[in-house]
Amino acid sequence: MKSNIALIGFMGVGKTAVGQALAEKLGREFVELDLQIKKKADKSIVEIFQQDDEITFRELEIEVTRHAAQKSNAVIACGGGIVLNQINIDRLRINSRIVYLTASPSAILKRIARGGERRPLLEVPDPASTVRELLKLRRPLYERAADIVIDTTRINIDAAVEQIIAGLKQDEDFNLRK
Asked: Could you tell me which of 15, 75, 80, 132 has the fewest CB atoms within 10 Å of its CB?
């Protein structure tokens, strides 16, 4: 029986905020893969992209995903590009229900601007166009990986948490209790 909840989706859809709230509500460990990558590399994600490259980042992502996927009763916030390597989804699927958080491109851009965090993939002349292009490329991958889809465009964190729990309660192959 599966016991982890893995949150996937593009940057700015709420994976970290919703994941933290969900883990707290369910009394589960919260694991943020990007934070695990930073610890493993001993540098920021921006530095990994600048000093190494995206391939190095993706290799680290595969490694930390393998470790996180082996946990039980965890809420795992995945990076936006987790779906680019099918091995990540295959590993997560073994013990996790995969929840795809989505939002409109305009909501994503507003949230990213508010967050103040540097996003290497959006350090381009036209971030809005880049968001649309990346979403177009990744959306089918997110959708194929998802067990549950939640649109966070017009809902708050608590509502997203409640929708996830409602979806999991309908899943007889998922252990919602610890």
From this structure: 132
